[in-house]
What does this fold into?
Amino acid sequence: MTKKLMRVLIVSAVACTLALCAGCGQTGIGAPTQSASSSGASTEVNVTAEGEYDIEVALNGGSGRAGIQSPTKLVVNADGTMTLTVVWSSSNYDKMVVDGVEYLPVNNGGNSTFEIPVATIDEDLAVQAETTAMSTPHMIDYTISFNPEGEGSTINAGSMTALVADFHNDDLGNGWKVKSSLPLQYAKCFTVDYYDDGYKLFCLSDGGRYLTVPEGKPTPEGLASDIAVIQQPLSDLYLVASDTMCLFDALDALGCITVSGISHDNWYIPSAVAAMDSGAMVYGGKYNTPDYELLLGKGVKLAIESTMINHTPSVREKLIELGIPVFTEMSSYEPEPLGRTEWVKCYGAMLDRESEAQALFDEQIAQVNSVNSEVTGKSVAFFYINSNGNAVVRKPGDYVTKMIEQAGGTTAFEELTETEGNMSSVTLEMERFYSMAKDADLIIYNASIDSSVKSLDDLLGKNALLKDFKAVQSGNVWVTDQNMYQQMMQTGRIIADFNAAITGSGADTTYVHKLG
It folds into this structure.
């Protein structure tokens, strides 16, 4: 049974925080990560309880024809060691080698399956695997990378709402005084302060601080050493945080992005696809394997990264060494759906387009307010079935669950609130999932993660138990579009779609569709 992942925040003065980091001696998943400012510091310590979790993984190396199952099982043992289940895409692997130790398959028949040790998920794992698919056995070098914040992972920080305390620090270190600050209604993870002559300071909840310098203006002297400088006009960006693309698109600023950390086939935003088709935007490698030569050749001035960059500190350091500031996107940590959308104001301020950003945000608020959020009494099971045959559901308090509530529904998984730790998603064995969701009035299948479900027969093919569900028998089964997670700027529209599904109003929908 999945046990909880506890996330503990320890907030203290700088001296105490530094002492904690210096003395903990931890590595890997239990290691504290520090973010400090001149006014104070916060240290987030992740303590993983013994138990089983799902984690997204990716295989790199070899010819590219082989693959491994993702998400897959990660077991945290009582002594803190970890074991990863590796399920290959073929049955031809007869041996794996990790740190010089050989491991044999744990299964008989079917695709080759191994259980191997993992020291840390903060770095790629180098492995070797022997395949018998050729005339003679061949040992091939691979690396396995981990994405604990992926939608398929139950080790992630997506639902953490108490991030850091007092991250806002407007002291530039040179005596300059704040003239005004950007008003925010929902967002909790960034601030923007305005100084004379158009200078702006951006503070993020991970402790990062960034000063935009207006075109033609000098970088101020005496800046605090932790402040990264971003030269305006904002252009030649390397965008890795996929959910941010829609914000630049809405601001009509897609032309600022010349390098993408997401490949062409993984974009569902039409203008992003068009930009890559035309060559205006090129693929520059994912977060942990950027093409540094390409970034330099394109004159990249800023890298906008997801929080996954925290798992590859060497990449962050290399980018900064090359003169490319790293801005870590924190919108996924917002406790409210509209807080995520309000990040359009952050990038609007970087682009000197505050009024356009405010208008876009006001449109989303108006759309949300137009939805009749009166509680209908109808329960919703939002989930997908992973490759292990288990159901992955969103916890109460997660932003998707909150959107369902704002649409008038309730989650079928309310009892998870106190029992499953501080995670945005939870993996449930089918027996437990059945007991919670069989009487739900509505099913919304998360095809943003599992796109294989395109019909009711596809859904029932996942597990025979689903045919007994109330929503299946009443024909109230819906499926999301693949692009829903890339549409942070359409929060109002998504809530309206959920409302149409929950109420059965018959209104046109964009991001969810009823299965026949």
About this structure: The two ends are 34 Å apart (CA to CA).
